[in-house]
Amino acid sequence: MNAKKSIIILGIESSCDETSASVVKDCKVLTNLIANQKIHELYGGVVPELASRAHQKNIVPVVDRALKEAGIRKEDLSAIAFTRGPGLIGSLLVGASFAKAMALALDIPLVEVNHMQAHVLAHFAEENNGIGYKSIKNNPISLHPSFPFLCLTVSGGHTQIVLAKDHLDMEVIGETIDDAAGETFDKAAKILGLPYPGGPLINKYAQEGNPNAFKFAEPNIPELNFSFSGLKTSILYFVRSLTPPLSEGEGGDSRIPHLCASIQHTIIKILMDKLITASKQTGIKEVAVAGGVSANSELRNELISTGKKKGWNTYVPAFEYCTDNAAMIAIAGHYKYLKGEFAAQNIGASARYKF
């Protein structure tokens, strides 16, 4: 009897400022490489035109290295999965064009992936040693969330509560009506005079501060939706009112740790309050977090702590699967491959792609 043929997916991620390629074999991550774009630090944020140019420069060497380090020939690939959206249109076009050309040249299926859906499916990545996905969880039995589960998906551009009914059957039951939590971290850091990217710096300085030192506005938004624009305004006006004014430079003022801790505490409280409500409304106790902000230490700790109090099984991604990466794209591609959900060569990128 012939052995079952492995499914080998090349994933390509280029939605923002990181060029990533990953090779996944039967949901086991063989390689997951990321080329960062440091140039944006000079401008205090991502410059779309510079991002797309950097993707053009990085994509060939990143894909080549991903294949070589995985020990996979391009002829061994079952399909190529790429991020169709959402994201920066110029960046998306680079990844989409490369994936389409390579799939056409190899005469293999092309799979388009929603970036936010892929963040949720990062929880189903497995390490190549076969021991399963490296995550922090209070359920020692299950390696992955069981369906249905809730996933708080938090990134620089999106904040959502997703009800995952199956690998490819997901529903957004709550989302931000204006700004994203990740953007709020970065904008707050800029207000405090911290360099870009500021989110990780807020997390760093918050470890030394009092989370109850300062109070900021918390929005009263109905149902499961979020809003962060009012909080950003509250932070701006509060910092402007400080006497004496904040000292310039990274960490140069003794009030910075307390401000960072208070801002971080407020953002995470807003997120967790909605997630608790979602669990109550749905009765679901399988709860996960995903997206770039899931790397935040207080959010991870708060989810696990709340899970223990509420009787949840909680799942937090390993750090390498929190930020934008191609492994999550390849995992999503794997499940779409199994269902034969392939894309045509005339498919385009979509900056506002929803699922």
Q: Which features characterize this protein?
A:
Nucleotidyltransferase, domain 5; alpha/beta; 12 strands; about 35% helix; globular; about 350 residues
Question: What does the secondary structure layout of this molecule look like, with pairings?
Answer:
Layout: E1 8-13, E2 18-25, E3 28-36, H1 48-70, E4 79-85, H2 89-106, E5 110-114, H3 115-121, E6 126-127, E7 135-137, E8 149-154, E9 159-166, E10 169-175, H4 181-191, H5 199-206, H6 229-240, H7 256-282, E11 286-290, H8 297-310, E12 313-317, H9 326-338
Helix pairs in contact: 1-2, 3-9, 4-5, 4-6, 4-7, 5-7, 7-8
**Could you describe the largest sheet, including whether it forms a barrel?**
6 strands, mixed
SS-based class: alpha/beta
How many H/I helical runs? 9
Named CATH topology of the largest domain: Nucleotidyltransferase, domain 5
Strand content: 15-25%
Number of domains: 2
Shape: globular
Number of strands: 12
Q: Average pLDDT value? A: 90
Order of helices and strands: EEEHEHEHEEEEEHHHHEHEH
Radius of gyration: 21 Å
Q: pLDDT below 50 for ≥5 consecutive residues: which ranges?
A: 129-142
The helix content, as a percent range, equals 25-40%
Task: Say which CATH homologous superfamily of the largest domain is assigned.
Answer: ATPase, nucleotide binding domain
